[in-house]
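go over this:
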Amino acid sequence: MTKDFYVYMLSAKKNGTIYKGMTSDLLKRTCQHKNNIGSQFTKKYNVKNLVWYKQCGNWEDAVQWEKRLRRYSRQWKINLIEEENPQWNDLYADLLDYTDKPCNDGVKLREISQKLNSPLEARMFIKHITNLTDSDLIGMDTIPLTQEQRETLDDFIGQRLKGRPVSKIIGEKEFYGRVFHVTNDVLDPRPETEQIIDEAISFSKGKGAIRILDLGTGSGCILTTLLNEIPNATGVGGDISDAALKIAQQNAQALNVADRAEFIQSNWFESIEGSFDIIVTNPPYIETRTVEKLDKDVRDYDPMIALDGGKDGLTPYKVILPQIRNHLNPAGLFMCEHGTGQSPDIERLMENAGFEMIRVHHDLAGHDRCVSGLIPQK
């Protein structure tokens, strides 16, 4: 059954209590009522039979119908039910085929946690599969799943035990409070990169229209986040990977900034035109000789082109910084992420490029993580 907007009524019998509700997923919501999830009312009065529902064309129609159910008399509701369901049958079964019936015994959250050796990962899998929230899961140990959901969970657990990262299994990763689609074609967004967001937001305050360039955009998490956080900004995301650009475009669309973002296939500045007020980048910075020593979940599942920064890990910076004044406006901000111990070399490259007010930014562990600087006013 496709997702839509529904109003519905539950009752144990004709002369019993009637519960009224509205939902965008009737199958899921009815299953929750039957398993005492999210409604103390239905648990208290044992009101678990779906006796009437109406599919509405849009949210506004559903709201109007729900108001009628609350406002009109009990007899009006009974008449409404009996017009379509005179026997007061439980209509829940009509919503299911045999593959969708919930497993009678459900799954134990603590058992999944033990298999994965991670309660956090267990909850992430359950939330992704069922659309339950953290608040829904409070106090729950047994999770009702359909057969299809159970098979998906087993597949997820199998992949994780073989070393595949959770983000690559469920296809999403959170960054700066938003969820981004990720695949093996892009790096996972990481918390350390959020420093770039904070610095760019601070720089943009009090300014007019801002134009941003994100070099090596990958999933588009930096550019898309900045466009959400800076409403007066437009931006360009450049990447050499066509597959990565498709993911970035999807994320910009999903997070409602596609009309202010442009994505260009480009080897650094090669196909970039125009100038910008902010240029940011999180380029490959791992030394070639150490790439093979990376953790398996990075080495085997992130794209090598986004990891390998050349012999000394500085190849991208040596390409970007000598050209940057052709694209960064006077008084413009440049900020980049880098690897451990690389900040002195990047500071030197930035000084050679004519930057002023060069600053090193540390991550939560106290390590050098980003460098920023300004192009002087003419």
